[in-house]
Amino acid sequence: MVRVPWERLAENARLSESLVTLLVMRLRERAQPVDGTGGDGGRDLFEYTDDGELVVYEAKSFTGRMTPGRRQQVRRSLVSAARHQPDHWDLLVPIDPNPAEQRWFDGLRAEFGFVRHWRGRSWLDEKCAAHPDLVRYALQESADYVLERIAQARAERDVLAGGISDYLERARALHRRVQEISPHYAVHTSLDADGRTAVHLTPRGPDPDGQSAIRFTGQVRFAEDDPQETRRRQRFEEVMRFGGEVELSADNLAETTLSGPAGLGLERIAVGGVRITSPRQELTPPLRGQVVIQLPSGVPLASLPVCFTQRVSGLDGGTLHGSDATGVMRVRLRYSQRDRSAQLKFTFQPPEAAMPQTLVPVLRLLSQATPGHVIELAFDGEPAGRVQAPVNTSMTPQGWDPGEARLWADAFDDLSRLQNRTGRFFPVPENFTKRDAREVKDILALLDGEETVLRGGTVSVGVDSAEALDKLGDVRAGMFRVTAGYEGMLFTLGEHQIDLGPCTEVYTMDKILNMKEARRDLAAHGHATVKMRVAKRFPPVRYLGPLRTNGTEG
Q1: Is the pTM above the cut of 0.70?
Q2: Which of 347, 409, 299 is nearest to 51 (CA)?
């Protein structure tokens, strides 16, 4: 087995994580890397399965033990990943967990139900053993190694004298030949997640007829008292009824034989596992509709236009896949022709960069989708095409507090209004916080000509002359006011700055807290800082423009 020098690679975290990224991309055809230069949003790679499930992979370069600091980093990644509402989340780190670390990881599922696997050092070493070229690449060795391994491949002759050109020619010839012997199915091969050869059979035309269909003869079985097998059985039944994707292991197929069109030779294959995938049909034209959240009385509270573009079918019905107009919300509608029922599923997946107003309609819908309300899907041009059901569980994304969807909807709405008022347009900053949202609201109030209250209980003023300090010292009792005027006020949000123009701040104080220390500092250094207490009855205020003669009185 290849021994990957993880400790050496960990000296360059990006190098170690790049190796893991390349490995996952080799194992999972659909995996896509995330450019983390601006923050990866809690995910290094992600993939959408044929069934529309979102799987997020988080790669870490840690070696040794999972210390409290590292655990906190993992948890922060989970909090960030929760914004994307993944169905599964895997941690890939070259550490095999000890019992205490495994208990900690298992405990994360109580807060983040999508946590799935800890893929540790043994698992990574095993997978890298099947792809040693990736390890060589990570260690920056010569690319001649890849050519050498390809040159050793065997097909119809003992050697590939021509190197890569011979390999490509034979691969094309074998590919053409297998298509010729399979008139009903297109065939291609790849390596699955366990390094085994996977054969993909895709119908060339409409649903295969009785002569060309691939059949399982016998009984598909699932072990009892095994939670994973129970979920697999439920998934198998759902796929058969409504379409989708499911994987069956060799144990599930032990009493089953496989047969199909002559020429494929399926009867002679020892099946190690099967992945059943329903082909997706493009809906032309797309099926459009409107999702509405309303009160039981029928009063609408929020709505969102949606568009279904794909469909998969099963024995009892099928599943429609689509999204809202912005792509921020993915929508799945599963329908049953047997009992005329339907089930809606929403997945909130904000893009890496989005204008604030793009996110508001979806967040408004999420904020209103709470128990006690009713959800309805009405299709355009179909008076009878309505699906309606009570909301049983909140649609608030996992990891969010109750009411947080409304908070962010208001915040992004305010940010959009600020951009319209100032003419500065930019996507929502990566690390937009609740504090940023409060500051945006304050800036809007300033632009409306209002005064905003400044936070803090003390004010510090720098002095560089004895005369200035004496004037402050003359204040023996009572309150006094300090006014500060600025030629321009810059509001900073992420990488963006907005110039709001002249600004005035007014502070009313009732006590100097460090006069003796200030006099000593002035004598010793030629400058001092005077700290004063803000009067509770008159909090400090800020407004745009020059000093108002009839402004706040102290």
Answers
A1: no
A2: 347
Residue (of 396, 345, 328, 330) closest to 366 by Cα position = 396
Helix or strand (DSSP H, E) at 493? strand 490-493
Contact status, residue 317 vs residue 391, Cβ threshold 8 Å: no
Closest to 164 (Cα-Cα) out of 146, 177, 187, 178: 146
235 Cβ neighbours under 8 A, 6+ residues apart? 244, 246
DSSP state for residue 44 in the 8-state scheme = S
* 141's tokens: 């060795």
Q: Are strands 374-379 and 281-294 parallel, antiparallel or unpaired?
A: antiparallel
Residues 57-114 pLDDT 10s: 999 999 999 999 999 999 999 998 888 888 999 999 999 999 999 999 999 998 899 9
Cα–Cα distance measured from residue 275 to residue 38, given in angstroms and rounded to the nearest whole number: 37
CA dihedral 521, 523, 525, 527 (to 10 degrees): 70
C-alpha pair distances (Å), 428 with each of 125, 270, 324, 355, 544: 40, 53, 19, 6, 25
Between strands 88-92 and 54-59, the pairing is: parallel
